[in-house]
Amino acid sequence: MSLMSLTAVELGKEIKAKQVTVVEATKAAIAQIKANDKELNCFVTINEEAALIRAEEVQKLIDDGILTGPLAGVPVAIKDNMCTKGILTTCSSKILGDFKPIYSAQAVINLEQAGAVIIGKTNMDEFAMGSTTETSFFGATKNPWNTAHVPGGSSGGSAAAVAAEECSYALGSDTGGSIRQPSSFCGVTGMKPTYGTISRYGLIAYGSSLDQIGPIAKDVTDCATILETIASYDTKDSTSVKREEYNFTSALVDDVKGLKIGIPRDYLTEGLDPEVKIAILNAAKALEAKGAIVEEFDLSLVQYAIPAYYIIASAEASSNLARFDGVKFGFRAKDFDGLHSMYKKTRSQGFGAEVKRRIMLGSFVLSSGYYDAYYIKALKTKALIKKAFDKAFEKYDVILGPTAPTTAPKLGDSLSDPIKMYLGDIYTISVNLAGLPGISVPCGNDSKGLPIGLQLIGDCFEEKKIIRAAYAFEQTKKYDRCNIAKSRD
């Protein structure tokens, strides 16, 4: 088996025990990328030379006893919307095609302080706008389980890279399910923590009130360990929350006795693929067999989540993306006549169709005469959705449901119908609107062999409960590797 088939924590232990060097682990990741990535297109930038130099530095720090953490020396991939000092950061957009930041995102700094080796930046939907990683200027990423299918999005490059064992783990960002949904489609584990737990400093914003960085890895242990490493209070981020403690790995116990789990009936109605429904209900039975109390309930307001989300996210995007105008950094159009002409041509040529669609939608709902009718109404709906979750969490510790209504669609299917793509976020976006933590864990495969994801949602700052439930469920099944990963054994 390849070194990349180990989980991040397992590889960290091998490095610490001197069974393998950091350079060997880094070379193994780069070799896997070179073998697979022409077909999969998981990476926008491969940081080979710098990663090998960094690997030698980290090895010395480990040998000297300075770096002792569980992730020291383990190769990681970073989604391409997080600033990395001196490394190309494009948001998979033409408009930032040559942008090299002069600073790193706080989450990246936290990883580097723990001894991580950054091997590259992963492909994504342009400016994180999309659910398939097909809107990238650099071309679509393919699903390693079946390359005719999408990997999900917008963190599709990160999820596909982990599934294809091109890195030990990756960072993604989640605005409306962009960590959990691709994790579901690629058969890996992905977690979105409570809003404010991880600093957004250095994350290129899409929807500022919704965006949150999180881990994508092979299992729950890795996710809890990574979360513990990157979570921190940061004065540079005004939405950062100072938490009492960050010991997420203490929740890794195989015990759900007495844990109250609610399944929203609204999540099991029309639009849900029958094979996905069976897998989710079987997962609930597995947790019930371990002593959890499982029952169905009415969550309500689910049908309003998508319109509320797309109004709020697009409004914030239209504001956030105004800075990309050809003046300060990034792409600038040629042959323009005056300042306004430069703005128009730069943004017309620099942004892709989906980004333009959302900027226009956002500008419309914020415009005079429509602000109250759409944007304010969406904010009120967001508050009602949070209230519905608050009521549910008075009775339940964890909410269980599907991560996505189907398994991964074929390439091109969703892109030709944006509304269909938006509806694919039905089970994930409420979590962002309410600022809650959520995790997606693999719970089976459909008849085509494509992975199915189980989503567990917790109340604000209750990551430990969903980690505990996810870990207990994970013990009931073996991690399934895709054929591309197995072919390297």
Short overview:
It is built from 16 helices and 11 strands.
Indicate the percent of residues in helices: 25-40%
Rg computed from alpha carbons, rounded to a whole number of angstroms? 21 Å
What class would the helix/strand composition place it in? Answer: alpha/beta
Give the overall form: globular
Fold and architecture overview:
The chain is built from 16 helices and 11 strands. The chain starts with 7 loop residues before the first helix and ends with a helix. The longest helix has 25 residues, at 371-395. Strand 2, helix 4 and strand 3 form a beta-alpha-beta unit. It has helices spanning 8-16, 22-40, 48-63, 106-113, 156-163, 180-186, 220-230, 274-289, 302-320, 339-350, 353-365, 371-395, 418-423, 429-433, 463-474, 483-486; strands at 43-46, 75-79, 117-122, 169-174, 189-192, 212-217, 260-264, 293-297, 398-402, 438-445, 451-458. Helix 5 (156-163) runs parallel beside helix 6 (180-186). By secondary structure, the protein is an alpha/beta fold. Helix content is 39%, strand content 13%. The model has no long low-confidence stretch (mean pLDDT 95). An 11-stranded mixed beta sheet has the order 1-3-2-4-6-5-10-11-9-7-8, with helices on both faces.
